[in-house]
Amino acid sequence: MKINIQDVNFNAEQSLIEFTKERLSKVEHFFDRVIDVDVFLKLENTSSKENKIAEIKVHVPKESIVVSKQCKSFEEAIDTGCKAVERSLLKLKEKRSRKHA
């Protein structure tokens, strides 16, 4: 599984990139046919403390799952985004297994 990370409007520190890759590597446990993952880390220019956005796009055969989370920290946004992706992958896996049963 390939993980592409893009930082928009800021330069991500190496520790954030490592955290993102480590957290996303667990996604494969929920669905074994993940092709690749695109992550966009965006810093929104607002006065709000919740200005960190993590957009996660998971590509699987014939479909893509897109989740966007906005939080106070990138780590929190990535973590909550990954949880949402994992739930979506489980639903997709269930749906596909029912089709083939």
Q: Report the uncertain regions.
A: none
Rg to the nearest angstrom?
A: 14 Å
Mean pLDDT score, rounded?
A: 92
| Widest sheet, order of strands | 1-2-3-4
Helix percentage range: 25-40%
Q: What is the tally of beta strands?
A: 4
- Name the helix and strand elements from N-terminus to C-terminus, one letter apiece: EHEEEH
Helices, by number, come to 2
- Straight-line N-to-C gap: 27 Å
Structural class: alpha+beta
Most strands sheet:
4 strands, mixed
Q: What would the principal axes of the Cα set say about the shape?
A: elongated
Q: How much of the residues is beta strand, in percent?
A: 25-35%
Key structural traits:
four-stranded mixed beta sheet; 101 residues; 39% helix; alpha+beta
Kindly describe this structure:
By secondary structure, this protein is of the alpha+beta class. Helices cover 39% and strands 33% of the residues. It has two helices and four strands; from the N terminus they run βαβββα. It has a four-stranded mixed sheet, covered by helices on one side. The relative contact order is 0.19.
